Amino acid sequence: MGIRFCVLGSGSTGNATVVATEEGKVLIDAGLSAKKIDQLLKERGMSASELDAIVVTHEHADHIKGLGAVARKYDLPVYANEKTWAELDRQIGEIAEENRCVMKTGEMLEFGSLQVESYGISHDAAEPVGYCFYHEEEKLSVATDLGYMSSKVKEKIQDSDVLVLESNHDIEMLRMGRYPWNIKRRILSDVGHLSNEAAGIGLVDVMTAKTKRVYLAHLSRDHNLMDLARLTVNSMVEERLASDDHRAKLMDTYHDRATEWDVLKDD
């Protein structure tokens, strides 16, 4: 079996995704409580004790809420770049020195047969990153918390078998919403979050005939709807692709439950 993954939770209330091969298992972020992560993994037939490591995208609370507790409970290595570690140290409590692992942005790690590569993204954090996962010819990319999809990000995530892509908000719902203007401006900025429209436009540039599925992730509970995100992203893609071009299937993620296991080799 090659790569399989499960989005345990996605959104402003907490983010965590598990990626696994037979020989390597990695958790991306731990933005849910340790108890919730244990529960969700158990529901998917796995224990956190099977994990080889946790890799961190950035230090915002919805990505690290349970990080310290999970790392300590299961004695897990935590990988993040130096600037992110400087922020984590103030938030997650004591981590055993041997488990404080610095991963330079752009570095490739190996956990058994699973290769993990980080890449820089634009977000209002110390040094935020996304991740690509490789096993033989398979590629899974995770790209959330993007202010915008830069050419470098597009280059990194292009030609993925499966992509987890931020589709955070509907622009008009956000503009009309209850948030104060300074927060709206931050979300709409180049260091904020990717809108449904921007996700669809960017997807056209990175989707290839190899790309089977795209999971729309990190949806705002206040300024988006799953059906609206799917409809808008699909509309942006339809406008820009020829009728005979390949189209990946759009998939849902949830803030309150895990997705089913996705096996990349499955068509």
UniProtKB/TrEMBL annotation:
Gene3D superfamilies: Ribonuclease Z/Hydroxyacylglutathione hydrolase-like (3.60.15.10). It catalyses: 3',5'-cyclic CMP + H2O = CMP + H(+); 3',5'-cyclic UMP + H2O = UMP + H(+). It comes from the Bacteria. Residues 13-218 form the Metallo-beta-lactamase domain. SMART domains: Lactamase_B (SM00849). Coiled coil: none annotated. Pfam families: Lactamase_B_2. Counteracts the endogenous Pycsar antiviral defense system. Phosphodiesterase that enables metal-dependent hydrolysis of host cyclic nucleotide Pycsar defense signals such as cCMP and cUMP. This is MBL fold metallo-hydrolase. It comes from Paenibacillus oleatilyticus.
